[in-house]
Specification:
Length: 369
């Protein structure tokens, strides 16, 4: 199995600010190229694109290819399960949204302290075992966004989980909040294959600071910045799949080109990445991956990830004009950063453990003067 998976969280859009406006024609074209190049793995989830990602893959892949031509992964939205019957309801709805009779990989989505506790209490693990026994999920596992210690506990108590999906990338490798390396080591200790999410850190590593770009280009002018990030995690032993949320045909073409005949990083390339990590660590202000989990519950409709993105750009490149312009555009018709009432509904959802309320103050200070 080739190690690149097509992530359905950031599909191309017709309208930049509207996650529901999926560019289906482009998704179809991308899926065709992906499959024609010998790739098979598609990853989606209930909330992606406000509920439309699963249907987009149905139209692009399920309706147009024989079932054995692709592998489909989907996830139980643990954060929306409040009673045991919800598992069955969500799962059946997902089969229908995707137009399939089974999933090749099925995950409990976003386990951390809170969702793990509710999954234990409501019978989420029993439900997963039942799916596997019934053949409705060929492989069962979970995605995880918390500390390595909790991952160890889950894998110890639930050896029936066959794989884990982790946020691994070269910039979070030693991060204390994400703990990429520590989580990876726990998965290895339990002999669980790893599926990697956020290898490019929400797109951030596709556009590293200028000093880092110079280092990469000096080594090889042809290699994209994203390719370094994807090859970094694909080179790790035990990684079975690297998901990339590709939002254009060009990105997909680039990714499939170097992953068709994947070559692990050599020692010199690893050294370059270590230097790049130092450069980036000096410049990222807010480690947001644009997952959007925080957005829906905000009573002020604050466009949190968009504001963080413009703030990071301002912090990285030092120019205030363009980010300020983007800030005005992004805040049109939505709450400004200064309108945050500090209810913290958003912070409960953030897999990156960002103190959103504090960071919004920085944003307001930078762009609302
Ligand atoms: S703390 Fe602020 S940004 Fe977060 S949900 Fe509440 S109002 Fe929205
Ligand atoms: S602030 Fe956190 S939850 Fe919101 S988009 Fe960024 S990483 Fe995701």
């Amino acid at each position: 199995m080739k190690k690149l998976g097509f992530g359905g969280m950031r599909l191309p859009r017709l309208v930049e600010n509207d996650p529901k406006s999926i560019d289906q024609a482009q998704v179809n074209e991308m899926a065709d190229h992906f499959i024609n190049q010998g790739f098979t793995y598609f990853d989606t989830a209930y909330p992606y694109h406000q509920g439309l990602s699963e249907g987009a893959f149905k139209k692009a892949v399920v309706d147009r290819y024989p079932r054995e031509a692709f592998l489909l992964a989907d996830k139980m939205p643990t954060f929306s399960v409040f009673k045991t019957e919800d598992y069955e309801r969500f799962f059946n709805e997902q089969l229908e949204r995707c137009g399939v009779e089974y999933f090749d990989y099925y995950l409990l989505h976003n386990l951390g302290e809170k969702n793990y506790a509710s999954s234990v209490k409501l019978g989420g693990f029993e439900f997963m075992k039942k799916l596997k026994e019934e053949g409705k999920a060929k492989h069962i596992g979970f995605s995880f966004h918390d500390k390595a210690e909790l991952l160890d506990e889950i894998l110890t108590k639930h050896p029936e989980m066959e794989f884990v999906q982790l946020q691994l990338n070269y910039i979070d490798w030693e991060s204390e909040s994400i703990q990429s390396r520590k989580c990876y080591e726990v998965a290895r200790k339990h002999n669980k294959p790893v599926i990697v999410m956020e290898p490019i850190k929400g797109g951030g590593l596709a556009n590293p600071p200028e000093k880092a770009q110079e280092l990469f280009k000096a080594y090889n002018k042809e290699m994209s910045y994203a390719s370094w990030a994807i090859r970094y995690v694909a080179s790790l032993e035990g990684v079975m799949m690297v998901l990339s949320g590709m939002n254009s045909f060009n990105q997909l073409k680039d990714n499939t080109a170097y992953m068709s005949d994947f070559k692990p990083l050599n020692e010199e390339e690893k050294e370059i990445i270590l230097k790049v990590v130092d450069i980036i660590n000096e410049s990222i202000a807010i480690p947001c991956t644009n997952c959007q989990y925080c957005v829906d519950d905000c009573p002020k409709k604050i466009n949190i990830p968009a504001y963080f993105s413009v703030y990071n750009s301002y912090h990285l490149y030092g120019d205030r004009n363009f980010p300020a312009m983007h800030y005005d555009r992004q805040s049109h018709g939505r709450g400004k950063a200064s309108e945050c009432i500090e209810c913290k509904a958003c912070e409960r959802h953030c897999p990156q453990h960002i103190l959103i309320t504090e960071k919004l103050k920085l944003v307001a200070g930078a762009f609302e003067k």
